[in-house]
C-alpha cells in the first residue's frame, strides 16, 4: 500500500527545524530523548522515512525494522541500562495510545517498570 506523504513533529526534528537531544543517528534512523520522559532513560528511536506506525510498515521494510530494534539495544548499552534491564515499546493507533503518527520505539529504563501497562 502506498501511503500519501505526511509530516509530523518528528519530521521537523529529522530536518533539524526544531531541536532535540539526539543520542544516536545514522543514514536510516535517529534516536533522541523524549521531551516528557517517563523514566530516567526515555529515548525515542525513529526511522528517517515517515512510516505512520508499525501497522503501516511493509514487507520491504523488514530490514529497516530489524535495524531500529538493533539501535534500541545499542542505545540501551550507550545509556548504561542494558545490564539492569529496560523496555522497548511501540504504541499503535488510538487504543495503543499513539500520539505521533511517525513510527517510533520508546526505550525506557533506569527504574523498575510496572507490568501490565495501564
Ligand atoms: P506516542 O504517544 O506516540 O507513543 O509517543 C510520542 C512521544 O513523543 C511522547 O512520549 C512524547 O512525549 C514525545 N514527543 C512529542 N513531541 C515531542 C517533541 O517535540 N520532542 C521530543 N523529544 N519528544 C516529543
Report on this structure:
By secondary structure, the chain is an alpha+beta fold. The protein is 23% helix and 21% strand. The chain is built from three helices and five strands; from the N terminus they run H-E-E-E-H-E-H-E. It has a five-stranded antiparallel sheet, with helices on one face. The longest helix has 17 residues, at 62-78. The radius of gyration is 14 Å and the shape is globular. The mean pLDDT is 96. Guanosine-5'-monophosphate (5GP) binds next to strand 2. Guanosine-5'-monophosphate binds at residues 9, 20, 32-36, 44, 91, 97-100.
Briefly say what this structure is:
The chain is an alpha+beta fold. The protein has three helices and five strands.
> Cα-atom Rg, whole angstroms?
14 Å
Number of helices: 3
SSE string, helices as H and strands as E:
HEEEHEHE
How would a crystallographer describe the biggest sheet? Answer: 5 strands, antiparallel
Number of strands: 5
Any chance you could write out the topology, listing elements then pairs?
Elements: H1 9-14, E1 22-25, E2 29-33, E3 41-47, H2 62-78, E4 86-89, H3 93-96, E5 105-109
Antiparallel strand pairs: 1-2, 2-3, 3-5, 4-5
The structure holds guanosine-5'-monophosphate.
Summary tags:
21% strand, alpha+beta, 118 residues, 23% helix, globular, five-stranded antiparallel sheet, 3 helices, 5 strands, binds guanosine-5'-monophosphate
